[in-house]
Amino acid sequence: MCLNGLETVLHLLRDCHASNEALFLAGMPRALVHSHAKSTVAWLEETTTLLFVNSLVLILIVLWNLWNQRNAWGTSHAVGYIKVNAGVAYDSDCNTTAIEVITRDECGSVLGG
Q1: Which DSSP state fits 94?
Q2: 15 and 50 in one domain?
Q3: Could you list the residue range(s) of the whole structural domain that residue 63 is in?
Q4: DSSP state of 14
Q5: Does 62 lie in the same domain as 16?
Q6: Which UniProt keywords are given for this protein, alphabetically ordered (predicted)?
Q7: C-beta of residue 103 within 8 angstroms of C-beta of residue 113
Q8: Which residues are CB-neighbours of 96 under 8 A, at least 6 positions away?
Q9: Are residues 17 and 51 in the same domain?
Q10: Spatial distance between the Cα atoms of 111 and 106, rounded to a whole number of angstroms
């Protein structure tokens, strides 16, 4: 999104200058924006344990919008190509796993999921 350095999920959501400013303006303390967490999961865990629910909801909305903006920015594909996104979640309390797959055409329209 910012075209600086390696475009990892952690970079997009926390390290990118645009993300830094959006998170700070949404009320995230600078200490969390400049956290030393080495992974996205570790950073999100740290964030969820240190923020009050009202602040956390706003931060999650900002993160969701950053992710959507990044996806919208990178969705132009050649005609005939299909983009496939997959997500997996595991609930250790219930010992269950969920898998979601969604496919989109070159215009970003959902084909199935």
Answers
A1: T
A2: yes
A3: 9-73
A4: I
A5: yes
A6: Membrane, Transmembrane, Transmembrane helix
A7: yes
A8: 90
A9: yes
A10: 10
The 10s digit of each residue's pLDDT in 69-100 is 877 765 556 777 787 888 888 888 888 888 88
Helices 40-50, 53-73: inter-axial angle, 10-degree rounding = 150
- Asked whether residue 78 is domain-assigned, the answer is no
Distance from C-alpha of 81 to C-alpha of 51, rounded to nearest angstrom: 41
Q: How far apart are CA 53 and CA 57, in angstroms?
A: 6
Read off the tokens for 43: 């950073």
Residue 1 falls inside a structural domain: no
The model's pTM? 0.59
Tokens encoding 103: 């496919």
Q: Which residues of 57-90 are buried (b: 16+ CB within 10 A; e: fewer)?
A: eebeebbeebeeebeeeeeeeeeeeeeeeeeeee
Nearest-angstrom CA–CA distance, 24 and 41: 20
Same structural domain, 57 and 37: yes
Q: Of how many residues is the chain composed? A: 113
- Tally of structural domains, the chain: 2
Using one digit for the tens of pLDDT, what is the confidence trace for 33-57? Answer: 899 999 999 999 999 888 888 888 8
Residue matched to tokens 């999100």: 44
Type of residue found at 8: T
